[in-house]
Amino acid sequence: MSKSLVIVESPAKAKTINKYLGAGYTVKACMGHIKDLPKSKLGVDEKNNFEPQYVVIRGKTELVKDLKKAAEKANTIFLATDPDREGEAISFHLAEELGDGKQLRRVILNEITKDEVLRAFANTTDIDQKKVQAQQARRILDRLVGYKISPLLWQKVKRGLSAGRVQSIALRLICDREREIQNFVPEEFWTITAFLEGHEPPIFSARLARHLGKKIKVTGQAGADQAVADLNRALFVVDEVEKKERKRHAPAPYITSRLQQEASRKFRWPVKKVMMVAQDLYEGIELGDEGAVGLITYMRTDSVRVSPQAVQDARKLIHDEYGTEFLPAGPNFFKNKKSVQDAHEAIRPTSVFRTPESIRDSLGRDEYKLYELIWHRFVACQMTSALFDETIITVKAGDYELEASGQVMKFAGYLRVYQESEEDSADQEAAGNKLPVVEKGEELRLDRVEPKQNFTQPPPRFTEAALVKELEEKEIGRPSTYAAIISVIQNRSYVVKEENRFKPTDLGFLVSDLLVENFFEIMDFKYTAHLEEELDEIEEGTKQTIDVLNEFYTDFSRDLEKAYVKVENIKATGVPTDQKCPQCGSAMVKRWGKFGAFLACTNEECKFTQNPDEHPQDNIGHVGSESEHVCLKCGKPLVVKISRYGKFLACSGYPECKFTATLTKVQKEEGSVEVPGEKCPQCGSELVVKQGRFGAFIACSNYPDCKYIKPKTVDVKCPEDGGDLVEKRTRGRKIFYGCANYPNCKFALWNKPVRQECPECHNPFMLEKFRKGDGAYLECYNKDCKYQPDQQPETEPVAT
Questions:
Q1: Which terminal CB of the chain, N or C, has fewer other CB atoms within 10 Å?
Q2: Looking at 54, 147, 298, 414, which residue is catalytic?
């Protein structure tokens, strides 16, 4: 008897589902998309209604053959890919390759539990062609923008750059914010605070609010001095005491963007890591005798809807664990925004009775932290509101009025189990101000008046959480795209992170400005949000794909033609700098070449170039400046110089003394060490940073009595036994990466593993590789998956 074939996207998901289905099913993983537009050409027939030309992805031919063999032995093929547009498109392409004469059924799994799997297989559907069309429309739009605009950047700036329909908008947001910061002019203002005492303690603070009945803004020293002098002479009398009860309602359960923001703020995780850990929780975790169990519902959603059964379970847990006072009379319901697709429930535990503590031993540290966050938020969403007693005291002091506010928690409500990372600052200030009992007309004693000078602050740079929030508010992109957007703009060196906030590079500014100048409509926030709405309308069946593509391409092709006319026969201008050419005195500009950024003379007859001082804050110093080190041969000061390989130290006595060295070598000779504040696990002594012939390493300070050397971890788990992968060296000093549990586990890799999930097959890590001319790129560890994140064509397309 032939078995039914079930196809999912990842091996972890396949393992969990196979446990529930039994012997009558064969479950295989397709490792993400099996077909895509070709990399070597546009792959979209612009003259034939934008017909996409999908091909089997390079490297997946053998996988497709294996799936076809399995399909030949089955009467029914169940397509259980992820329940979103991408998953629907994967099922569609699987049906094209495997469905010849076979019965095909689509399985929608919002969570991977036994009950949900059995329910889904008992209620299969057809492939949703509207979802497929919406996904293909997005793919075609992205391909047109990427493959048509990127060559413009190659001609104007340098090869290898890319433009994306949504990533370019994210870049513009970061660049616009940086310019706001650069152009910001701080304004002075003063806060005047009086510390007062009534007939009962404590002393409390009241801030100057009004003068002659109007709001007051003190903007200078003279005004502040005058207000302080007046208050010191005034009689302080309670004018009004207002008391009221304030409610803080329970928050909605997590949607993707809110989970990304909260985990980013609380744990300082990149958005990409949040989604990787959530994927693990969704696909299944081994829970002892239970086996692999999906712990949360599907993690890519924009809906706050929750199933009635999950609500009832949450209410039962609240009643049993926290008491009836924490349980509202009826379930809490939350409204979705108009733009929400509402295809899936909010992110919640698959069983609220599976508490974080009950499964802690089965979870890794990161998995536990994220599951605990999701569990607490979901339980909190069905609890009563928090209640506060709030008091506002208005004090008259001559012509001035001051205000003091304070609040006391009356009932914790949902705050018993969950509190957001960013509460209202006014609430926090009020909660910290303890107010005495006072009555209207009561005279108060002045303890002191404190003026404080302040200056308005520029808007902060975006963190990952803040950028996701901004994209969400502008309705740009969708939950499944935020992590990829943020990764791309960093991988392209358009932005860098400083103190966990995004700062655009010169290259990022240049690319963004070029795109805004030539493709203003594509770079317009409202237009991009409108395109997202049209993709939703395709999925709903109210708009046709061809109409959306025609409308977009009419204006896009016109702008594209104008842009190429501008750059034809024009040499890349570069970014202006304040430096002059040392040979001819002309202005220098920053340009980008095969090996990165460099400075070049604007005089075409002068060919002078040099490496820019990209990092003036580093510990070597500015090029040409004296360092804090001395020559190890003659004792003269060492100066900073630069070569094609970066900065180095050279003797200032050149050419008499030709000594050169790296900073590491000089520090090693001088015995430079740094104490990181860690203890040796073998003897308990301090660990120190030492310099060796192959660079810095951390070792025990008790050497040679203790020869412990701390291995360098790469934040990736061994796929064979779950241990940490660490950096090691062969006898010939070549770097490789192996399991920390050696010799029990002998797993090893030559290429550096990077904790980043493969978008195609969902393998938990990628391998860092290098290609001559292009530099570093990531390749999936799974040999059957040849995913390459660089979506640029292998050969430069002909400009239209």
A1: N
A2: 298
